Amino acid sequence: MSIPNNLKYTKDHEWVSLDGDIATVGITAFAQGELGDIVYIEIETEGETLDKEEVFGSVEAVKTVSDLFMPLSGEIIEFNADLEAAPETVNSDPYEGGWMIKMRLSDPSELDALLDAEAYAELIG
What's 87's DSSP letter? Predict the structure, then answer.
């Protein structure tokens, strides 16, 4: 299972990629594997500022619906609109084409609480 070293991770199975104060967020290969075939992604929080661990959307798979949690506090500035027509991209390419949101960080110190690839690998066993 792929766990890229250049990303940070949450215990809720989101990944974070940083570019300055802009973070790109998606779900991990482990998460999409647990969910199964993803059929719909709902994110209606674009333009909103949310706190860390608040729900920013949901992922619907054939078997279940799962909430998406903010890995960091900040403003959601972009939703990956490609996922509206092709939500299954999250299954086939979770770390590139399957990203979900871009956000502007409110508190960069929150990054310290995220897991590195090694710690995330230990979490998922």
Answer: T
- Domains of the chain, each with CATH number or no CATH: 8-107 (2.40.50.100)
- Average pLDDT score, the chain: 97
Give the span between the Cα atoms of 55 and 16, in whole angstroms.
16
Could you tell me where the DSSP H helices lie in 25-85? 29-35, 82-85
Residue 71's pLDDT is what?
A: 97
Please state, in angstroms and rounded to a whole number, the distance separating the CA atoms of residues 58 and 16: 17
Check whether 6 has a pLDDT greater than 80: yes
Measure the CA–CA gap between 65 and 117, rounded to whole angstroms: 26
Residue 9, CA distances (Å) to 48, 50, 55, 62, 73 in order: 22, 18, 16, 25, 15
Q: What is the pLDDT of residues 20-60, one digit of tens each?
A: 999 999 999 999 999 999 999 999 999 999 999 999 999 99
| Per-residue model confidence as pLDDT tens digits over 49-72 | 999 999 999 999 998 999 999 999
The pair of three-digit structure tokens given for residue 44, joined into one six-digit string: 């209606």
